[in-house]
Request: fold
Amino acid sequence: MTDVRWRRLDPRMLVVGPLKNLMQLLPFLLVVLLTGRSGDLNQVWFAISGAAVVVLAGVLRWRTTRYRITDERVELHTGWLRRERRSVPRDRIRTVDLTASPLHRVFGLSVVQVGSATGGASTLDRSARMDLDAVSKTEAERLRRELLDRTSVAAPPVHRPAAEIARLDWSWLRFAPLTFSSLAGAGAVAGAGFNLLIEAGVDPRDIGVVDDTARRVATAPLWVGVGLAGAALLVVAGVGSLLLFAERWSGYRLTREPDGSLRVRHGLFTTRSLSVSHERLRGAQMSEPLLLRAGRGAQTRALSTGLRDGGSGAIAPPAPRVEAHRLAAAALQADPAEATRAALVPHPRAALHRRLTRAVLPTVALVAAVWVVDERTGLASLLLLPAAVWLAVDRYRGLGHALTARHLVTRLGGLRRRTVALQRDGVIGWTFRQSVVQRRAGLVTAEAVTAAGRGGYVVLDVAVSDAVALADATTPDLLRPFLAGARHAGHGERAVVTAQEHRS
Amino acid sequence: MHPDVVAAPLPELPLRPPAHRVHPRAVTWWRLRAAAGVLVVAVPAVVLLVLVGTAWTVGLLAVTLAAGAAYVVAVPPWLYRISRWEVTDRAVYTMHGWLVREWRIAPISRVQTVDTQRGPLQQLLGLADVTVTTASARGAVRIRGLAADDAADLARVLTATTQATPGDAT
Reply:
């Protein structure tokens, strides 16, 4: 193997690194400076030496960080007191993410995050990721192309333009208040706003209007107070969710790169770029949380190996359902009717009974418990029963599965409905689970095991014979020797460990 | 037909049960483990009985011990009848579970690591578990309660088979 030159991070990190650290240290420095008695120079010296250490650490970090990309591996050496040498085989690289905080953007830098799959359970831990913080934007772009495109080593890249699959339609902003994460985020925005006022030395209670309103509400009947607080919360949540959506999804573009990988770019202040190579894609998921579903919207995610569950993997903002289907299909390079939009086989009636008992029985127990404590509240809690029945029926209606030419499609869930189209090649095993109740109802839950996303996707409460037939059709040859009626280790199968070898 | 391969109870799935049973000593292992669990529950009941000493606490202790004893006597042999495993040159296949029965099938070509584990009770009884991990976070297949030697052999054979099978196993 030829010697490949070691590279340093971008020299601009000599400024950005210490600056970032200083900004993190700023509250602390302010406290040190402000709490000192006036004229006490010790405080000033303390603050200055603190700042100096931080700047020095940033410089040292730049000096001691080196990386290189050889034909086989990506290597990263960091640290001075505690040296760290990391190395990832290039064929294990699953994703390359480019992110840039506002500070990075001012200086034209990007952080490159290399996601890889190491063996087994360690796929889940952080060590499966390597961060280059940071390199110039052009270098980041070059690294992304080089790391994902295995063929460019052999042949010079053909310059085809990236094909655009989707870009942001601002009318999708209407879905922002319908997503729970946005609602949760809105709370954070409100909290941050309140903090900002406090930090600025303004107590909201000192503002005349606010104080006056607060006093009026305090003297009004309880339900008025609760109603007003609820309405205020909704307004804040709504506005916050719109702001978050705008920050997160401004400039959204989904493209198919010349090397065949899928690329998502979005973000207003912090720009994010996610690339999923074609070889690593295992499927697509359409998520429809209850509110979003009520608004006929959905969000599309890519199921790729090397992506951690949660948050990552979103390849589109919440969008109209038809559009979400189209994007999922485009990601999989299939017809929507062959992917998430396939006609699904409903599950047996017994599945409905199971959904009903599982929703209604705990609710009955809850209502009974509340009744014992307080009869009036108990009476009111009876309203929970129809809600539980409705949820159960809705969950049952959501159940469905299908097997298309290249995909296994399964749908489940009510509050968090999701439709998953998993590539049949991506299924690397099966788990069947059956409780006593399911056994008596002739149902089973089949889970298709895969290396991507959550690691397994279930087909809930399906008739036993259908479950096995579905699994057998999805992964031909895997189940065949184990089907009822098949002979033990017969028909071309060789038992690796026979009963004789297995001394018992 | 091997003595190991017995007629299975009615299949709940149109899958035949895996060929092999685990080691019979696994029954003892499950019994000891269950007994330890019963003790953990019974000790607070005894303490309550000593401190309070009403008929109610006597009843609580009696019910705990009766249920525990029934479990220790009845469930482990049942588990033994259900727990089965099989390894071919193409796949690992297991079945286990009492209230919730579970069948797992993983192709050899997707196996990444093969480990054996032995807890303290298992060491006492000369037993071991074999865990076969695939690239999936949810795909691990575990064969519980093999004789320690058999587990080591199986792990060796599986590792060799896995290495002979090309691909990056994802």
Notes: The radius of gyration of chain B is 20 Å. Residues 39 and 68 of chain B are 9 Å apart (CA to CA). Chain B touches chain A through 56 residues (CB under 8 Å).
